[in-house]
Amino acid sequence: MLHPAHKRAPADVAPQAGTAAAPIDTGVYLTDEVFLYRVVGSLTDAVDEVVALEDCYGLDVVPVHVSHLRSRRLRVVTPAVEG
Description:
Blueprint: E1 29-31, E2 36-44, E3 49-55, E4 61-65, H1 66-69, E5 75-77
Antiparallel strand pairs: 1-2, 1-5, 2-3, 3-4
């Protein structure tokens, strides 16, 4: 389950006003600057999209409604590539 410290979503995860919400793709990493999550799967129905989030520290995977996820203070992060 998401840590209760998450409150509101910044612009890169929250849908922009007047636009359709972009899907959250498998493999995307999300953070609140304390915790790190990875989207490991998704399921969409006519009502809502559900994603499976992996807590990258505890390795637990939990289902989360995207509408709930977008209400949290999370941002997309990109892993650094060594080279």
